[in-house]
Design a protein that fits this description.
132 residues
Length: 132
């Protein structure tokens, strides 16, 4: 009986921790969506599909997988030809370095976990380390 109560307490405690972590992830995704809507959506579109021949998609693409590369794109901008999902794009993206580390982490986490992307979260510490 004592083992059952102890095990139930551990499972319940773990469940509460997991629920708390999920709520935090949802909050971060909400913040990321807000940043995306304000600063990214006008080019990359509401569902990340981009504009064919003009703005590359951020949905369903390995282009956003490399954490350092994609942080660099946000901080430094992008120029020159790139290939995303087998299609070439050649339009400049201005740097978004005015965004805070948290905003960049939130928006990249949102992009990397939305629209078929399944890549790990980006942290503000990762952005800060690369900003230097």
């Amino acid at each position: 009986m004592i083992k059952t109560i102890l095990l139930t307490g551990i499972i319940t405690g773990s469940s509460l921790l997991l629920m708390s972590m999920q709520e935090g992830a949802l909050q971060d995704n909400k913040k990321g969506k807000e940043v995306y809507t304000l600063y990214c959506q006008s080019c990359h579109m509401e569902k990340g599909e981009g504009v064919p021949g003009m703005y590359p998609p951020v949905a369903k693409t390995a282009y956003v997988k490399d954490t350092k590369k994609i942080i660099g794109v946000i901080l430094n901008g992008q120029s020159g030809e790139i290939t995303v999902n087998g299609k070439k794009y050649n339009i400049d993206m201005p740097a978004q370095a005015y965004l805070t580390n948290e905003q960049i982490a939130d928006v990249l986490t949102y992009i990397r976990s939305s629209w078929g992307n399944k890549y790990p979260a980006v942290t503000a510490a990762q952005v800060k380390a690369q900003r230097k």
